[in-house]
Amino acid sequence: MWFFTGYRLVTGYPVNVRFPVTTKLTPPLEVFVSLTVRRILPEDVALMEPFLDMFAQAFDDLDAYSAKRPSVDYQQGLLASDYFIALAAFRNNEIVGGIAAYELKKFEQERSEIYIYDLAVAASFRREGIATAMIEELKRISAERGAYVIFVQADTGIEDEPAIALYSKMGEREDVLHFDIAVPRS
To answer: Tens digit of pLDDT for each residue in 142-155?
Structure first.
């Protein structure tokens, strides 16, 4: 794992990002606020409620993230699976960011890709390096799993411009089309 102290990338454990905050006091006082990024494991299933709450608020989509929440058994099974990765960013024990990702094992070669399905940071914590810290931790996990790439899609609306800027900084952009194919309900 890695952590960011001051403005240097340092190898270590656990993932810890520190952001300087300057106050208006005389003399100037520098305070460091700590951020921890870690995987949510099956035994952490109780964290899934605040994790989903953070996504609902960050995306302003209470219906999608709150209306039909899965059972605790479903969530534990998902967290225990070998294909789902949930990462949470914590500040003072509060979830302020999260990634929901899936490992997709390829059929043409013995390797996998990691797909970031959702990435969110609470509105009051954006532009502080939290998304970057979570992606860096996902890169470490992906390397451990033997994945050769992480991919993510972003919408082209003005509200996604910060996400597009982040992803452009971290990887190579591909212009692709995305289609949702409806599945008939029985």
So the answer is: 999 999 999 988 87
